[in-house]
Amino acid sequence: MAEIENILPLRKIIHIDMDAFYASVEQRDNPELRGKPLVVGGSPDGRGVVAAASYEVRKFGVHSAMSAMQARKLCPHAIFVKPRFAVYKEVSRAIREIFSRYTDLIEPLSLDEAYLDVTQDKLNIGSAMDIAAAIKRSIKEELNLTASAGVSVNKFVAKIASDINKPDGLKFIGPSSVEGFMEKLPVEKFHGVGKVTAQRMKALNLHTGADLKQLTMEEMTRHFGKVGTFYYNIVRGIDNRPVQPDRETKSIGAEDTFERDLSSMEEMSPEIDKLVEKVVSRLRQYQLKGRTVTLKVKYSDFKQITRNRSFTEPIDDADIIRKASLELLENNIIDKRIRLLGVTVSNFDPLPNAKPDNEAQLKLF
C-alpha cells in the first residue's frame, strides 16, 4: 500500500497558525494588555471557558478550552477580557486575503489557522518556503500580528511543523525527511492522539512513531479501531487528504474522554455543562444557529451510541442546548460506566451575514 500511495505527485502544503490569535488581537488593540497574562473568555469569578490565552499566561499552565475557574487557580493575577468575535472575524478575513494572493486552494480550520496548497502558486514563486515567509511578513507588516508556518508534502506533517518553533516560527520538513521525522515523534505529538489515547499507546509500550510502525494494519485497527488505519499510514508519511477550499460548516461539537469512567448523573452533569459552553462559544464565533442537538456516549466497553433532538427553530442558547443534552442523557443512559461524552449542534440556519468558513469540529480527546 505504501509503495502505491507514495508514487502520487508530491504536493507543497503550508499550514498557517496564528500565534495566540484572540489574545494577540486584544494586546494589539489595547497597549495596556501587552506583556500581561491575558485570558480571552470566561470571567474572573470562574464562570465560562477560556477561548484563548496569551503566551504570558500559558507559562502558568492556562490554555484554551480550560474552565475559567481552573485558569484563575493557576494564575490568580490573570486579566480576563470578553471575546470580540466580530473583530476576530474581520481580522481573519484580512488574513485570508493575504493567503489568496498566492493560491485559491485554502482550507480554513478556524478563524486562526488554515491549510494552503501552493503546488501551483498564482505568482509562480515555486518555493513553498518563500511563500510561507512572504505570508508571515505580510501578516506582520499589515496586521501587526505574528503567525507560525509549517511546510511539507502533506497536511498532517505541515500542521505538526507549524507548531515546532512557535511563536513566529517557520519549519520545513521535506519529502526525504518526513518518514524519519514521524519515527522520532512522541505519540502524544500526533494530532488526534489525546491524553487518554496516548496513555493506551504507552501501556502497549508504544512511545514513538517508530514503535507504532512496528504494528501491522490489523494490529493497529484491533487496538485503535478505524483511526488505526490513519495512524498506520501517517507514521509512514502517507496523508493524501487534499486541501479542500470553502467547505461549508456541517456541525460544531465538543467531546471529552475522561481519565476516570463516570457512573452517575451527578458526575456527568457538570461535564455536559463544560461541553455546552464550548459549543455555544463556537456557534457564536461562527454566527451560526442549529436545529439539531446530538448527544454522543461511549461506554467503558467502547460501545457507542448517539441520540438527537431537533427543534422547529434554530438555536444557539446554552440553556436550551444544555437541557436537551441532559434529557437525552437521562432518557438513554444504560447501566454502564461512561468514558466519553460529546455534544454537537448541526442542521444549521446561518444568520444573514454569516459566511461559514469550514467544517468545524472542536474535539477534545
TrEMBL record:
Q: Which GO MF terms does the UniProt record name?
A: damaged DNA binding; DNA-directed DNA polymerase activity; magnesium ion binding
The cofactor(s) it depends on are: Mg(2+)
What does the cofactor section's free text say about binding?
Binds 2 magnesium ions per subunit.
Which residues are named in the active-site annotation? 113
Q: What EC designation does it have?
A: 2.7.7.7
Q: Could you say which residues bind Mg(2+) here? A: 17, 112
Q: Which reaction does it catalyse?
A: DNA(n) + a 2'-deoxyribonucleoside 5'-triphosphate = DNA(n+1) + diphosphate
Q: Which PROSITE patterns match?
A: UMUC
Q: Does the keyword Ribonucleoprotein apply?
A: no
Query: InterPro entries under this entry?
Result: DNA/RNA_pol_sf, DNA_pol_Y-fam_lit_finger_sf, DNA_pol_Y-fam_little_finger, DNA_polymerase-Y, DNApol_IV, IMS_HHH_1, Rev_trsase/Diguanyl_cyclase, UmuC
The site feature described as Substrate discrimination is recorded at: 22
Subcellular localization is given as: Cytoplasm
Q: A cellular component term (GO) from this record?
A: cytosol
Q: Does the keyword Magnesium apply?
A: yes
The record describes the protein's role as: Poorly processive, error-prone DNA polymerase involved in untargeted mutagenesis. Copies undamaged DNA at stalled replication forks, which arise in vivo from mismatched or misaligned primer ends. These misaligned primers can be extended by PolIV. Exhibits no 3'-5' exonuclease (proofreading) activity. May be involved in translesional synthesis, in conjunction with the beta clamp from PolIII.
Subunit structure comment from the entry: Monomer.
HAMAP family per the record? Answer: DNApol_IV (MF_01113)
Which family does the similarity line name? Belongs to the DNA polymerase type-Y family.
Question: How is this protein named in the record?
Answer: DNA polymerase IV
